[in-house]
User: Which sequence fits this backbone?
């Protein structure tokens, strides 16, 4: 059996995975299909090309989860962060990057590494043996997508994400909202209270529909509309089809009694469903949307109980290939049915350049350690890296699994700290302090 690590896809995740494994002394081959085979979003043949915005988002490692992920990757000698820092552009608290020099220097560093070679070819089959990481991203080529689907089953591979907004539980006003499953269905008290309900009067419903109809929306790209129009229409499209459509769809008020005012029959109800095992995040059921981000927060805060909602992620509909990691991967990011194959990057159901690179960093280290015969534990649960990998490989609801950004809702609470908005600053500082200590200990155990 070959002791070389093969990585399919030289994007954010594949590049970082290669760097980490090569620095641990493992020979790596990156298989990248560009420039021979192109995608609709990439423009160049460089590795680690940023396909859209040039931002790595917040660089605040004390108060922001993505800033913390930056910190952890820097501490682990991450290539993506080193090159992002080198080609940083002024952008206030955000880390904006000069995209072409960034991608050129990632490519140069990888091709100059004595343990790394790059083969420019498209891989279309799942390898039968060896050590592999699949990091082919949201635009995985059709051939490989079909091979993954054949292995995992059609339901376990998505080609679009239709994301409903996700809200921090602590920001929902429980004096207005209440917990109840429709018709009190369920065998346990927990199941009978599995949903959080926000009631609307007729006037509130009409105003909400007006706001949906006039909100700024993102246009669909060519070919984007296939696949999701049947099952998961954006709410604004439903509203366009008729003012009552939502009231007979995801906002139907039946089978629910307002716990705060049992005699008031709501005209419509918005339901939220628990999004993680910790119960810190809730998604709005059936509320996939193409509203622009600014419009989205404005419109969704019109929902009674969500006036002060903080969003862990906003909704969207995109071309995006990703697997159902909670059912398919173990916590070492290995495909359970073919453990010689790991997955990394956006295809695992994380979202964004930084999160994808982070999952590359982790999978590269895990794979190299296994090849070297010194397997290591996956990232500690209280680090940003660990919070993310534990979410995708188990913490998330498999049935409703959708791509996720890193956010503090994925972290185990720190005991003894004040909840709510007022305690947020201290809480986030406590999360990031704890994460840094655990991450450093994990790194130190490998050196
Ligand atoms: C249109 C679009 C816009 C986006 N905008 C943003 C944004 O603004 N900000 C953000 O943070 N994220 C954005 N994303 C998400 C972004 O793609 C990811 O954050 C990040 O690039 C994912 O990293 P990755 O390594 O998983 O995939 P990628 O960076 O896409 O890398 C995957 C690589 O695999 C290669 N590949 C695919 N199939 C094969 C194959 N069969 N054989 C060999 N090579 C293959 C591809 O050519 C590519 O180089 C966007 C995605 C899309 C599709």
Assistant:
């Amino acid at each position: 059996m070959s002791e070389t690590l093969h990585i399919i896809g030289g994007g954010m995740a594949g590049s970082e995975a290669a760097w980490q494994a090569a620095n641990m002394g493992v020979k790596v081959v990156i298989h990248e299909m560009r420039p021979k085979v192109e995608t609709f979003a990439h423009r160049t043949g460089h590795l680690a090309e940023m396909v859209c915005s040039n931002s790595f988002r917040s660089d605040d490692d004390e108060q922001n989860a993505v800033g913390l992920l930056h910190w952890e990757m820097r501490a682990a000698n991450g290539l993506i962060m080193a090159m992002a820092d080198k080609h940083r552009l002024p952008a206030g608290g955000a880390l904006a990057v000069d995209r072409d020099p960034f991608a050129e220097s990632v490519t140069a560093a990888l091709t100059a590494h004595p343990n790394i070679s790059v083969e420019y070819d498209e891989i279309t089959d799942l390898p039968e043996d060896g050590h592999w990481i699949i990091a082919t991203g949201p635009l995985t080529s059709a051939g490989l997508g079909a091979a993954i689907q054949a292995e995992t089953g059609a339901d376990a591979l998505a080609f679009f994400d239709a994301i409903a907004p996700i809200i921090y539980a602590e920001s929902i006003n429980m004096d207005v909202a209440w917990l109840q499953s429709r018709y009190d269905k369920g065998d346990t008290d927990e199941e009978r209270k599995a949903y959080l309900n926000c009631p609307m009067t007729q006037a509130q419903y009409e105003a909400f529909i007006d706001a949906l109809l006039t909100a700024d929306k993102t246009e669909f790209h060519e070919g984007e509309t296939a696949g999701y129009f049947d099952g998961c229409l954006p709410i604004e499209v439903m509203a366009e089809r008729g003012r009552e459509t939502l009231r007979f769809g995801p906002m139907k008020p039946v089978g629910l009694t307002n716990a705060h005012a049992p005699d008031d029959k709501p005209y419509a109800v918005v339901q939220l469903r628990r999004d993680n095992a910790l119960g810190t995040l809730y998604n709005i059921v059936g509320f996939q949307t193409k509203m622009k981000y600014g419009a989205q927060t404005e419109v969704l805060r019109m929902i009674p109980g969500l006036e002060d909602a903080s969003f862990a992620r906003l909704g969207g509909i995109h071309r995006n290939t990703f697997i159902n990691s909670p059912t398919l991967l173990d916590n070492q990011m290995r495909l359970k049915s073919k453990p010689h194959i790991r997955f990394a990057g956006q295809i695992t159901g994380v979202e964004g350049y930084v999160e994808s690179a982070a999952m590359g960093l982790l999978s590269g280290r895990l794979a190299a350690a296994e090849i070297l015969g010194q397997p290591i534990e996956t990232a500690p649960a209280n680090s940003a890296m660990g919070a993310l990998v534990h979410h995708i490989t188990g913490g998330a609801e498999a049935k409703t699994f959708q791509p996720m950004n890193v956010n503090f809702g994925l972290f185990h609470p720190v005991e003894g700290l004040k909840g709510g908005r007022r305690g947020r600053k201290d809480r986030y500082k406590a999360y990031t302090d704890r994460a840094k200590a655990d991450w450093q200990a994990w790194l130190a155990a490998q050196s």
Observations:
- The mean pLDDT is 92.
- Residues 345 and 356 are 4 Å apart (CA to CA).
- DSSP finds 13 helices and 17 strands in the chain.
- Residues 8-14, 31-34, 39, 41-42, 51-53, 122-123, 135-141, 144, 319, 345-347, 352-353, 356 surround flavin-adenine dinucleotide (CB under 6 Å).
